Each structure stands twice: as C-alpha cells, then as structure tokens.
Amino acid sequence: CADCFKKITVFGILFVYCLFTSAVPKRTRFTATQDKKMLDYRFPTALQMVLSVAMAEQLGERSTSAILAYGLEANPSFIRKLMVPLTRDGIIVSTLGRNGSIHLGRPAEEITLRDIYVSVIEDKKLWASRPDVPARCVVSANACWYFKSIADEAEQASLQVLARHTVASALEEVKKADTSGCDPVPELIAKYKEAH
Q1: What's the pLDDT tens digit per position in 15-60?
Q2: Which residues contact 80 (CB under 8 A, 6 or more apart)?
Q3: Buried b vs exposed e over 11-41: b needs ≥16 C-beta within 10 Å?
C-alpha cells in the first residue's frame, strides 16, 4: 500500500538523517584539512630519534638535538620536547654542556617500541571516541560505548605488536633497507666510510 511505503520511506530518511547529520553536530564535523591537523607525529618522530641515537652509538658518533633535528627535518624545540619523556623513562640519557651528547639509557635490546610509544604518547588513546551524543536512534544510543570497546581492543593489539620489537631489532631491519636516496649528516658520511 502507498501509505505504508510512504511511512517506511519517511522512517528510512529520518534514520539516515539521524546517522549522518544529527549524530554529528555541526560544530564537530570534520573536514579533510582538519584531519591533517589532528595527526600525531610524536611516536614516529621519537622512534626515529631513538633509532638515530642507537645508530650513532654503533658508529661511535656523538648525537645531539641539533643533529637529530637535522635528520628529522624537525624543529629542535620539538626534539627537545620529546626528549623529556624519553629521558624520564630511561630510554635516552642526555649530558649537558659544550660536548654534551644523547645516548641510549639502556641497551638497545632492552628497549621495546612499546616503551617508546607509551613514553611519548602517555595516556592519550590510539583513537578517541566522540563525546556522547543524544540517543536519537539505536545507533546513536550505543555507538559511543561500542567504539570505545573496539578502540581499546585495537590499542591493546597494537601495544602487543610494538612490545615484540626492540630498538636493536628495528635498527637491524632499517640498516638492511635501501639507502640510495639518503642525504645524511656530512660528519656521519665520513665516519661511515671509515668504518666500511
């Protein structure tokens, strides 16, 4: 019957509207540019820092925040900011002064990628759930707790993977990779050529 069809269609439209419009208030809708601004580069930057320090130690080279900043094409203040939790957690140690240097805080075999991640990310969740939204349908009434449970499960799985890899094993993998496109720090080039 036509009336039933109209009711079903209206219900369907309202349901879809609830899912895609009402459930996301206008002030919290995300655009592609906002998503780029929300990326968190602390872990990959800290990982590269720690791997660079480990590599410098293997080559008998000095590592400083300026060298790290050059290698990462990052602001030196961002590097120093990441050094704070890494130092606090004993992943790196830093000596001050004119001849100051950065070293691993413990053997590379004893530092896991999980250690680095937890240090710099601290208690920030891998994926943040949306704030609770008004319960307008079965989805909006339950999406928040469901997403949190899935996000927690994914985060635990990610941490387990990171715990299986050490700085030593990661550095060995990185050293096997192609370096033809590298533009290393000039002092390190000379030292590397002497060692090989």
Answers
A1: 333 434 444 444 343 333 334 455 778 899 999 999 999 999 999 8
A2: 65
A3: eeeeeeebeeeebeeeeeeeeeeeeeeeeee
